Every structure is written in C-alpha cells, then in structure tokens.
Amino acid sequence: MILRSGHTPFMNQTSLFEIDIKQAKLNRLPKDGSVYYQSAFMDVESSAQFMHHLQHSIPWEADQLILFGKKITTRRKVAWVGDPQCTYTYSGVKKEPRVWTPELLVIKDRMEELAHAEFNSCLLNFYHDGEDGMGWHSDDEKELDSQSPIASLSLGATRKFAFKHKQDKKTSTLLLENGSALVMHPPTQEFWKHALLKTKTIHSPRINLTFRKMKLHHA
Length: 219
Ligand SMILES: O=C(O)CCC(=O)C(=O)O
Ligand SMILES: [Fe+2]
Prior knowledge:
The protein is an alpha+beta fold. The protein contains 4 helices and 13 strands. It has helices at 21-24, 44-57, 102-115, 188-191, and strands at residues 34-38, 61-67, 70-82, 88-90, 93-95, 121-127, 134-137, 150-156, 159-165, 171-176, 181-185, 192-196, 206-212. The strands form 3 sheets. A 7-stranded antiparallel beta sheet has the order 1-11-8-13-6-3-2. A 4-stranded antiparallel beta sheet has the order 7-12-9-10. 2-oxoglutaric acid binds next to strand 6, strand 8, strand 12 and strand 13. Residues 118-215 form the Fe2OG dioxygenase domain.
C-alpha cells in the first residue's frame, strides 16, 4: 500500500485489520471487568504509514492537568477528535473536539466492529519515547458512557500497560505492541486503574488512539 498525497489509503481496506478469535476470547483481567488484546490488529506496513500520517497531520498539543493542586503541562502530546457535541473535560480542562478525518473514521469503524460498540470520540496520545507515560487513572469521567467499552489502537514502540485493582491493589500487566488493539469493557473502569508505564530504555515514539463513547446529554 503506497501513501500518495490526495489519496486516502485506509478507505474500505478491511483486510488491513485482522481479528484473532483465540485472543478475542481471552480476558486479561482475573475479575471485576474484562480486557481483550489483539496483537497485529493492523498490519505492519499500514501501522507504519498510519503512524507517519498521524505524526505529521494531527495538531498535537501538550496536555494540561491538575496534579496535587498544581497545573502541569505534560511532555506527552494529545489531540481530541469527535462528533461536534463531544466536548470533554479531562483532568479539569474542557476540550472541544477536532473533526474526524477520513482516515480516523475508517479506523473508528474497525474498532467499533472489534468492540461491538459505537464510538463518537477519540483521544490521541503521542509519547516521544519511554520517558513519556501516563499515570494511574480510570477512564471514568462523568461525560463518558460507563456502559460502553473503550477501545484503543497502539502504533510504534511496544510499551508496558498495567492494571491495578482499586481495592486489593492486585496488578496485571501486558505489552501493547505496534498495530495492536485493546478493548476494555464495563465494569473495568469502576474496579481498575490503568497506566502506561515509563521505560527509560525505549527511544522511539508511540501513538495511542483511544475510542470512547460520550453521553451527549448530561446535567
Ligand atoms: O497510551 C495508552 O495506551 C493508554 C492511554 C490511556 O489510558 C488514555 O488515553 O486514557
Ligand atoms: Fe486511560
């Protein structure tokens, strides 16, 4: 598949995405939720092209969050894409979504097929290297539909992702490889936190796209 300007390489190419039935049945959590991992969901060549495309076309911005009462700016970069009504408050900062690109809509379709759900928004994260990560959190903001799964696609460097149970602190880790997909089903966010761990020995970038469903009418 050759990436040419003015040409959308991901349109209608369902064969770029593979679902492995064995992996699709294997819950990575021992209790209180379910998480399914698909290695090589997107093929290697498409993953590289899509990563390159996103790296250069997305208006990446530093993330701002409140940590111990202080506003901090992350080295990790983010972008927020979604349907027009999908404003989102993330760590105390309100965000307006950017419009879906044709490429992102194709990926969204495939992620919906994998997760058996519909998504209306996507948070994109850019990690320069292993010094960028994401701390322990649950994706349980009030704007999110807690009945919907959350599905993410990883591109680039393999990184360690971890779950920690909120009550017994039991942890479960897995590696998120280039082209892999991860689906977290309810009630995972209620019982578990997750984090993208820092790994000093990794010197190449990673992009993660997290597809979500927001409630469009909330008080
Ligand atoms: O980068 C990842 O794999 C995880 C990102 C994440 O947890 C999030 O965006 O909420
Ligand atoms: Fe998350």
